[in-house]
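Lab manual, section 2.4: Encoding a predicted structure.

Procedure: take the sequence of the chain (463 residues), apply the prediction step described in section 2.3, and record the output as C-alpha cells. A sample record is shown.
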Amino acid sequence: MFSLNPQSSTPLVLQVVEGFRQLVEDGSLRAGAKLPSIRQFAHAHGVSVYTVVDAYDRLVAQGYFVSRPHSGFFVRRRADAAQAPAAQGAQFSFDSMWYMQRIFENRALRLKPGCGWLPGDWLFSEGVRRSLRALAAEDTDLGGYGEPKGYLPLRQLVRDLLAEHEVVANAEQVLLTLGSSQAMDLVARHLVRPGDPVLVDEPGYANLLSSLRFLGARLVGAPRTPQGYDLDALEARVQEHRPKVFFTQPRLQSPTGSTAQVAHLYRLLQLAEKYDFVVVENDIYADLDPEPRPTLASLDQLRRVVYISSFSKTISPNIRVGYLAAQPDLLEELGRLKMISGLTSSEFTERLAYGALLDGRWRKHTKSLRDRLAVAQQRVASQLLDLGFVLFAEPKAGMLLWARHPAIVNATELAYKAAEQDILLGPGHLFNVELEPSPWMRFNVAHCQDEALLAFLRSQLGA
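Recorded output:
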C-alpha cells in the first residue's frame, strides 16, 4: 500500500493522510473500495490506533473516505465526493464528534482527567437507590407515554428551584428533556438555520459546538476571560455578524471553569436588547457553585433568556434528566418540537430524579460535593502549577480547570500518547470554534486523584 517513516519531520498522521489521498487520486484505490480497519492498519504499520483515527477522520472530512456504521470505511464515490464541501477539510482538522465517540467519551480508559462527569462514588447513588425502591413499591401505571412537557410534579419542583434563584416562572414554562444536551439541541433546531451566525463561548461547550456544526450554523466565537467575557470583542462580533442567538455558560463554564461577573451579565443583556438576539443560558453546574449569584435568567426574567440546567451532573449522568425554562410562546414551540423529534421524555427517569431530589439527604449531598470539589480544586491547581502549567483561572469551585504548559504546542498529540497509557485527556481543540490545534487542556479535578496522571505528565514534560 504505502510505507511510513517514523524518522520523518512530517507527522505520522499527515503521512497516512497523504498516502491514502495519493492512492485514491491515482486510481489505485477505486470508489467503493473497503479500507483496512483502524486496528488492522495500526497493527500492520506499527502506529497508534489514535493516529489512524485522526488520519481516517481527516480523510472523511476532506471527502476521500466515507464511514458506514457497523461496516467500516470506504473510498467515497465520485458523485459523493463532488458533493462534499470543499472547504470542510480545510476548516476542520478532523471530525470532533468522531473523536469524542472513540476517545473523549471512552469510559474504557482507566483514568479520565479530561472527562466532563463526576466519578460514580461522588454522585447521589444512594438517593437514586432509595428513589428506585420507592418507585418500585408504588402501584403506578408506567405503561403509557408521559406528559409532553414532562412529569408535572418534577416541573413544579423545578419551578420552585427557579424561584430560589429569583426566576419567576410557572410549571407551564418548564420543559423536561433528556439531559441538557437535548434542551440545547431543541433550542438550536428551533432558532438556527444553515448558514445562520450563532454566537458561542470561545472556548466553549464541546457537545454544543458539534451539534451546531451539524445544523450548519456559522459559529462566531465570543472570547472568554477569567472574569467572564471580553466585552469589547463581544460587542464587535455582535455588530459584525448580527447573530440570532448566543449560547453561553456564565457560571463555572466548560472548559475554562470561569464565572462571569454580574456587570458582564448586565452588559450582555443590554447587547441582546440592542441587537435583538436570544440568549441561551447553560447553567448545568449551578448545584456545584457554593456562592449564590444572579443568573442571566434572574436578571432578565426569561424575556430574552432561555434557561437550561440538568440533574445529570450531580444525581447521575445515566438518569438523563434536564430542563429548560422560557417565555410561554417559545416554550410551547419547543414542546411541540420535542414531541415531533421523540414524543415524550421518560416519565420513569423523571420520577426517579424527583424522588432523589425529595430525599432529605439531597441538600446535604450537594453541600458535601461542593466542599469535596473545593479541596480537589486547590490540590490539583497546586500540582499543575508545580509542573509549570499556566491556569486560565482558579475558580476554587466546580470540577474544571483549563490549563496549558509552555512546552506543549498541541495538546491533541499529548492526548493520543495519554490514551495509549490508559488516560483520557481533554485536548483544547475540541472546545474551539475552528477546531484548530491548541496547547490548552481541560482537567476534571475529581478525576485527577491518581498518581499515574502526574507521573505521565512529568514523563512528557521532562519534569
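Check your result against the sample. Residues 362-386 form the longest helix (25 residues).
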